[in-house]
Write a structure and sequence with these properties.
By secondary structure, the chain is α+β, with helices and mostly antiparallel strands. It contains three helices and six strands; from the N terminus they run βαββββαβα. The protein has a single domain, classed as Alpha-Beta Plaits, CATH 3.30.70.120. The strands form two sheets. It has a four-stranded antiparallel sheet, covered by helices on one side. Strand 3 and strand 4 form a beta hairpin. The N and C termini lie close together (11 Å).
Length: 113
């Protein structure tokens, strides 16, 4: 079992969801995030005052999958999120020691579904 965490551009969320749904991956969590990377932010003028924006808006997607879906999930995220420009995001894959479905008490692979 793996937890796949991806940080992507907010405007690419719909494309990523469509790619995941096409691969029969429906169980995802999405949160708004802010971060800095290679883009290093930008300068903006707000009410006549120059403001340096270091943290840029991103979307964090978390998907718990069984081992046989790891590559499929990663490919779908890349296909939906890639623009070829700096700031496309990152994908992290971590091992899950345990997963428990609260409703039924199922554990492991059965709990992820």
């Amino acid at each position: 079992m793996k937890l796949i965490t991806a940080y992507i551009q907010p405007h690419k969320l719909t494309d990523v969801k469509q790619e995941l749904y096409a691969k029969d991956i429906f169980k995802i969590s999405v949160t708004n995030a802010m971060g800095a990377g290679q883009q290093k932010g930008y300068q903006e003028s707000y009410r006549g005052v120059d403001v340096e924006v270091n943290l840029l808006k991103k979307v964090r997607i978390e998907i718990a999958v069984n081992d046989e879906f790891v590559d499929t999930t990663i490919e779908a995220i890349i296909k939906g999120a890639r623009t070829g420009e700096i700031g496309d995001g990152k994908i992290f894959v971590t091992t899950l020691d345990e997963c428990i479905r609260i409703r039924s008490g199922e554990k492991g692979k059965d709990a992820i579904g």
